[in-house]
């Protein structure tokens, strides 16, 4: 089974890219972030025509997450991260598919830091870590996939000295990510490629993609039950080079049935 995560950076504006990628790679389950579309503007029919069922949590102009499944039933579990009734941002959706709990997340960027946006990032992270701990305690197969807006280590960024004050790389952010992983989750790409430079995001500016000046901020964290089934992982880097594409590349894992 192939599971993928992709920050599309606007699901309607990038729809031709998304549909081409789905057709060429045929993932079984897909987590999408940054839909940038209200609930009623999600391109459901185009997704259905591509062979996928879908659930989504939209938001006008910003954020938004979705889970797609090819020829599989999707049972929605959650679409709001517990812990703050006043938080209306569409940043998480969770479902059960083929016995696997799939959590799609789009963690706050947090810039400029320090400041209110960074405070929100850390508070969201704290709430998410509590949510993740409960899922892990269930003992079920769980995958936490999405755009974490976290650069975990210096290996995960081109020229790390330029990012020391950025919310994605600040010590507080990295500690929160380490606390999450240390619950017992496996970073899928790092398990299979522990010392390799791997990026999932390349800025639109300064020819970042052609220079391979990227970041690894899109992650798969696996519960022990799924970690034991992990057989492959990678990044569809070439998609970042397509016309009118997202600044992220799709990331994928394969697990045994």
Automatic annotation (TrEMBL):
The site (Transition state stabilizer) lies at: 149
What the entry lists under PROSITE patterns is as follows: AP_NUCLEASE_F1_1 (PS00726), AP_NUCLEASE_F1_4 (PS51435)
Q: Which cofactor does it need?
A: Mg(2+); Mn(2+)
Per UniProt, what is one Pfam family of this protein? Exo_endo_phos
Task: Using the record's annotation, list all stretches that form the Endonuclease/exonuclease/phosphatase domain.
Answer: 4-248
Note the superkingdom of the native organism.
Bacteria
Entry note: cofactor = Probably binds two magnesium or manganese ions per subunit.
EC category: hydrolase
Please report the name of this protein according to its UniProt entry.
Exodeoxyribonuclease III
Question: Source species, please?
Answer: Mucilaginibacter pallidiroseus
From the broadest rank down, the organism's phylogenetic lineage runs: Bacteria, Pseudomonadati, Bacteroidota, Sphingobacteriia, Sphingobacteriales
């Amino acid at each position: 089974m192939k599971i993928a995560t992709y920050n599309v950076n606007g699901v309607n504006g990038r729809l031709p890219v998304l549909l081409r990628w789905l057709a060429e790679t045929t993932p079984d389950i897909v987590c999408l972030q940054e839909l940038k579309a209200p609930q009623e503007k999600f391109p459901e029919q185009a997704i259905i025509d591509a062979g996928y069922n879908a659930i989504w949590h939209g938001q006008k102009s910003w954020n938004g997450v979705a889970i797609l499944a090819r020829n599989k039933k999707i049972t929605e579990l959650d679409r709001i991260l517990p812990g703050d009734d006043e938080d209306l941002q569409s940043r998480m959706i969770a479902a059960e598919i083929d016995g696997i709990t799939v959590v799609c997340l789009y963690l706050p960027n947090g810039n400029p830091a320090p400041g209110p946006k960074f405070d929100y990032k850390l508070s969201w992270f704290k709430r998410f870590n509590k949510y993740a701990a409960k899922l892990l305690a269930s003992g079920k197969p769980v995958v936490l996939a999405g755009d974490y807006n976290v650069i975990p280590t210096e290996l995960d960024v081109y020229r790390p000295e330029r990012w020391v004050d950025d919310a994605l790389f600040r010590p507080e952010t990295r500690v929160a990510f380490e606390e999450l992983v240390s619950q017992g989750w496996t970073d899928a790409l790092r398990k299979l490629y522990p010392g390799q430079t791997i990026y999932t995001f390349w800025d639109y500016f300064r020819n970042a993609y052609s220079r391979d000046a990227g970041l690894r901020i899109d992650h798969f964290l696996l519960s022990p039950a799924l970690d034991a089934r992990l057989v492959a992982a990678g990044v569809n880097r070439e998609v970042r080079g397509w016309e009118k594409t997202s600044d992220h590349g799709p990331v994928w894992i394969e697990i045994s049935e």
